[in-house]
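Course assignment 3, question 2. Fill in each field.
Student: A.L.
Task: Predict the tertiary structure for the chain below.
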Amino acid sequence: MAKHIQMVDLQTQYAHIKEEIHTAIQQVLNSAHFINGPEVKQFAAELADYLGCKHVIPCANGTDALQIGMMALDLQAGDEVIVPVHTYVATAEAIALLKLTPVFVDVDPDDFTIDVNQIEALITPKTKLIVPVHLYGQCANMEAIMQIAEKHGLFVMEDTAQAIGADCFFADGSTQKAGTVGHIGTTSFFPSKNLGCFGDGGALITNDDELAKKIYMMANHGQSVKYKHDSIGCNSRLDTIQAAVLRVKLPHLDTYNAARNTAADYYDAKLSGIDGIQIPKRTSWSNHVFHQYTIRLTKGNRNEVQKILAEQGIPSMIYYPIPLHFQEAYRMERFGKGSFPVTEMLSEQVLSLPIHSEMNTEIQNEIIHALIKSTQ
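Answer field:
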């Protein structure tokens, strides 16, 4: 059985919607509208409706979405952007590509998102933007972040690549979808994401009409109409075939996320209370869509456990083994070992187990048995 275990089972997911996918792709092939075909606008409108927001602007990938969003905010070289240090490199990469200055913040040891209690102390006159990352499928504390941003006149851009479909909860009882709370939201449709296409893809999300116009121009060579270039932009488009795939998968997103939650609940029930294993925390300000099911192995044996699992054909992943402040591209003299103790600890403890919309208890029992045995 173990040899068939996958981190993400995209083949079985595809098999369930195969006919819909083939029909959608064939329609694009028949039309030959491969770039900016009608499916792109249709998908954007359908995703906006799902998210309850005014504008979704598709683009080529999630990294482009981050960069285009910052360009649309008119940030200037040297402006400071507050970002968690425990995140995928793309978040910081987009900042650095625009000659902005990343200001790293440590994260909460239990929910892995930006530690909101550390943000205000890092704000300077150069600070212009906060980029919370909704890591592993759970949102950062957006109510607290928006209060800080409003107090200091800062923009907020949510990195929602791992949390599409998640809900943010607020003290007044209201909810908003991840990506719709800040001034801009960004997401990725990389195939392994909860809503993934069959190649690269991404999108920006906003409720601001003027920002939406700028984002659209930035992603389209800076032009408002063809051959009229109002600003310097880039070429970042979602292919029509990928939009067609996403239109098929979007109506299944809530079902996919519910299946991931069922799998996560089963992991929780079987792993809770096991010495040396800390299960993911569920926060009061967000639900979880479990892009990853990430545990902490607290006995200092994470790498050995991963090796033992691999020998039994059970995959696992470490997100992220080298913190950003230790990466050569982002090394700064003032940051050494101990600068971000939580992130450094997590880099040695976190392990993500297989989770996807096609999980079943038979597969999970094999993973759980092997994991518990390897940690004792």
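Instructor remarks: Residues 253-271 form the longest helix (19 residues). Residues 10-107+115-251 form a domain with the Aspartate Aminotransferase; domain 2 fold (CATH 3.40.640.10).
Grade: pending
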